[in-house]
From TrEMBL:
InterPro entries: Cyt_trans-like, Euk_NMN_adenylyltrnsfrase, NadD/NMNAT, NMNAT_euk, Rossmann-like_a/b/a_fold. One of its GO terms (biological process) is NAD+ biosynthetic process. GO terms for molecular function: ATP binding; nicotinamide-nucleotide adenylyltransferase activity; nicotinate-nucleotide adenylyltransferase activity. Its cofactor is Zn(2+); Mg(2+). It catalyses: nicotinate beta-D-ribonucleotide + ATP + H(+) = deamido-NAD(+) + diphosphate; beta-nicotinamide D-ribonucleotide + ATP + H(+) = diphosphate + NAD(+). GO terms for cellular component: nucleus. This is Nicotinamide-nucleotide adenylyltransferase. Its EC number is 2.7.7.1, 2.7.7.18. Transmembrane segments: none annotated. It is found in: Nucleus. It is an enzyme of class 2 (transferase). The lineage of its organism: Eukaryota, Metazoa, Chordata, Craniata, Vertebrata. The keyword rRNA processing does not apply.
Length: 290
């Protein structure tokens, strides 16, 4: 095997935004697939995964309270040593554009980095993460003013499925400037199926095409059709969801009787927050594919 200096790799944090209503094994697989992909390039090191369940103000039909969705996501990731759940987005009173969630997490890493570099000048560790498992690494000894702080902050990339990528083309759902900033400043990791439309979708959009180096398409060879919609459907019908979601999540759903015909009717007839917000905004993404 080639000798590689792990410090040369670009550090990446993966951020997944969605309803997670409820979280499934498929959602957890997205992170593993993306991590394998980045590590196989030899250029990146994935240091963290973040699940950010959307807030109740998103108003999607059948969306149960964020409180339960966050709890289930935390239960699902309790055995993961790198994926965590962040409830900042779901605690906001209003629905937030995904770009704002990306910015928030990037900013948070920046401030962690600054705090770290102020606290200890030597040795320099990238990010401000404690490297517990590798105490004997030979970090270069530098004075803090010799190393620009910003340079070592990891990139926060949006992790999604191809359905989310393709939703960029739905009129009034996304602002063009948001899509541009996501692919320009952060980057996108999209888990897709062989022979699907993700590549064609990128080809057909000038903006996505221009930034295609920052859009990583990861092929899912061991396909898996689990979706939250199907989980909720099975629950309404009294069917088993065992082995489709982590067992702790299944137990939590049963104990709290979370999904029912009534819960599926929540927000029925209500306009989805982004559509409500952007409908009157001429900058919305009707012009993605030009
Ligand atoms: N089968 C899948 N393959 C790839 N990505 C997926 C798959 N299912 C969900 N995702 C991705 O997971 C993220 C969170 O999605 P979401 O919470 O909507 O889950 P979902 O299972 O699609 O739920 P629903 O059925 O309610 O739409 C999104 O980026 C979505 O694209
Ligand atoms: N303009 C935007 O930023 C925008 C529009 C639509 C959905 N989203 C996000 O995408 C995710 C979609 O989740 P669902 O597939 O469960 O609807 C949510 O996190 C939502 O906030 C963002
Ligand atoms: Zn979905």
């Amino acid at each position: 095997m080639a000798m590689e200096d792990p410090d040369r790799k670009t550090e990446v944090v993966l951020l997944a935004c969605g309803s997670f209503n409820p979280i499934t094994n498929m959602h957890l697989r997205l992170f593993e697939l993306a991590k394998d992909y980045f590590h196989e390039t030899g250029k990146y090191k994935v240091i963290k995964g973040i699940i950010s369940p959307v807030g109740d103000a998103y108003k999607k039909k059948g969306l149960i309270s964020a409180n339960h969705r966050v709890t289930m996501a935390k239960l699902a990731t309790e055995n993961s040593d790198w994926v965590e759940v962040d409830d900042w987005e779901s605690c906001q009173n209003e629905w937030l554009e995904t770009l704002k969630v990306l910015r928030y997490h990037h900013q948070k890493l920046l401030s962690a980095d600054v705090t770290n570099s102020l606290q200890d000048a030597v040795p320099i560790t990238k990010l401000g993460r404690k490297r517990k498992q590798e105490p004997n690494r030979h970090e270069p000894i530098k004075k803090k003013n010799q190393s620009p702080v910003v340079k070592s902050v990891p990139q926060v990339k949006l992790l999604c499925g191809s359905d989310m990528l393709e939703s960029f083309g739905i009129p009034n759902l996304w602002k063009l400037e948001d899509i541009t900033e996501i692919v320009e400043k952060h980057g996108l990791v999209c888990i897709s199926r062989a022979g699907n439309n993700a590549q064609k979708f990128i080809y057909e959009s000038d903006i996505l095409w221009r930034h295609k180096n920052n859009i990583h398409l990861v092929e899912e060879w061991i396909t898996n059709d689990i979706s939250s919609t199907k989980i909720r459907r099975a629950l309404r019908r009294g069917q088993s969801i065992r082995y489709l979601v982590p067992d702790v999540v299944r137990a939590y759903i049963e104990k709290n009787r979370l999904y029912s015909p009534e819960s599926e009717d929540r927000n029925a007839g209500v306009v989805l927050a982004p559509l409500q917000k952007h409908a009157s905004d001429p900058r919305s993404s009707q012009a993605l594919n030009n």
